[in-house]
């Protein structure tokens, strides 16, 4: 019984170490000069270094560490007038 508990503890420690190593590789790839990219591109880069890191693990890292942003409108005018014939003034700064 003690051997089984020892084996479980050792497996958990190895799993934690592998997760931490994977997280470090993903972090390094994400913040590298070619980083700040999609999870798939980061996974391709990290997978060439350690093929035990799955795409799901990279996506989990992204969910935990990368803030999601909503698209802002694609460069279109996002002003919505409060009523019809509403006027506004814009100052041009040069």
Give the topology:
Layout: H1 2-30, H2 39-47, H3 55-65
Helix pairs in contact: 1-2, 2-3
Task: Spell out the key features of this protein.
94 residues; mainly alpha; single chain
Written account of the structure:
This protein is mainly α. It has a domain at 2-64. The chain is 52% helix and 0% strand. The protein has 3 helices and no strands. The protein has helices at 2-30, 39-47, 55-65. The protein is elongated and about 80 Å long. The mean pLDDT is 79.
The helix content is 40-55%
Question: What would the principal axes of the Cα set say about the shape?
Answer: elongated
Uncertain spans, ≥5 residues at pLDDT below 50?
none
Largest sheet: none
Give a quick rundown of the structure.
This protein has a domain at 2-64. It is 52% helix and 0% strand. The protein contains three helices and no strands.
């Amino acid at each position: 019984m003690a051997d089984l508990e020892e084996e479980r503890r050792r497996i958990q420690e190895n799993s934690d170490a592998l997760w931490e190593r994977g997280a470090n590789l993903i972090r390094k790839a994400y913040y590298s000069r070619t980083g700040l990219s999609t999870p798939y591109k980061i996974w391709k880069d990290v997978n060439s270094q350690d093929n035990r890191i799955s795409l799901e693990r990279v996506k989990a890292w992204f969910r935990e560490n990368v803030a999601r942003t909503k698209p802002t409108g694609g460069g279109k005018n996002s002003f919505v007038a409060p009523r019809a014939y509403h006027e506004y003034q814009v100052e041009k700064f040069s």
